[in-house]
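Journal club side-thread
Mid-discussion, someone asked how the predicted structure for our own chain would compare to the paper's figures. Pasting it here so we can look after the session.
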Amino acid sequence: MGYVNKKLQEFNNYLSKKKVAIIGLGVSNIPLIDYLNKYKAEVTIFDEKEIDYIDKKAMDKVVSHGMKFYLGKKCLNNLKGFDLIFRSPSCLPTRLELIEEVQSGAVVTTEIEMVLELCPGLVIGVTGSDGKTTTTTIIYRILKEKGYNCYLGGNIGIPLFTEIENMTPDDIVIVELSSFQLMGMKISPKISIITNITPNHLDIHSCMEEYIEAKKNIFKYQDKYGTLILNYDNEIIREFEKEAKGKVIFFSSKNKISNGYIVENNKIKYCVSDLRAHILDSKDILLKGVHNLENVACAIAATKDFCDINDVLNALKDFPGVEHRLELIKETKDRVKWYNDSVSSSPTRTMAGLNAFPFKNMILIAGGYDKNLDYTVLAKPILDNCKTLILLGQTADKIESAVTKEMKHSSKKIDIYRCNTLEETVLVAKKIAVKGDIILFSPASASFDMFDNFAQRGECFKSLVREIVE
């Protein structure tokens, strides 16, 4: 007889005739429509978008199942009398309508939180302001290389609710978790990683403290058997050790830690009581930059009890990185290289991208949607690494102001161009580039002023480069 997930059975039985709300017809919530209908829940859909902007296939499912739905900005006015509410990550648990329903007895959760509750196997969770997608993907590749049956989800991969009934205790689930998903979560993965924390999403979170507290949920509900992997170089994260209930493993590229993983001279080493053992050299893998070696160190720490270094090397030897992250698009006959780093939606991400290259002849294309972030920290890295800056979008003024101010205190001056469209930035970069230059599209800003998301923005940039650049 095969494995029976009794906890899942209990949940499925609970759903019958329960009043369940789904807030947001996004990627993660769409599988819930069929699942909840299968187990006879009374489902109502809420989405603040108007019907013309909602995925037609999703809406067809709602209609075919005979589910109620409320659309538009005021749809949550009808959120009353529910037993269970699945919120989308963009609908924070601090919404008044959710708080009122909780006070009336409703349970508010998310698709990914319920997966963590019901999954019978090991869960590895990754969060951070930067690097979480690459780290999550590397962990998945290493475990697959070893032969484990793995599921990849959360912010990336598939909506895991589609696979929950197939999971067994021998499986491993690897999830990338954003602050929006973690906020309000009451369960933590067995192994948790926090790559870094820097100001981000402050256009949505009420303050930096709220953002930090959301990130803490990735380890807050661990027990003494849990493992927490932390960035020693980040002052905010370093302090989390005091709150951890289980084992803490540090990694660092800037400090001489006695125990943990260090990145030193383009090598990853494991330290125990100040003794260092070589693990991996950057020349053994394709990924560029110290920040990516940090990501690999995290992945090694997370998988050390399941895999060996040969699994790591085999998993990474032909892995160029995740799309839209320092992705080489084209190299011209004059050895001008064009890189797409559209995922860089904050200053710290772009700083990591700039530092990944040893050359100081870079042309940086930056700017986009304003998330109320501080761009003064980006000014010096731009001056240190770039000869030209091309700006567009809402944050162009902020970035130019920060760089101009820094130039007043520096001996180095760079050219700054302003553009209105992404196509115009490609045309300008093509015109001014000379032999051996690196052109890096790393916006240091979100995409929402011109695009739906960073992936759409990156695809647009790649298409423009392939069309315009010979």
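Post-session note: The domain at 327-468 is CATH 3.90.190.20 (Protein-Tyrosine Phosphatase; Chain A).
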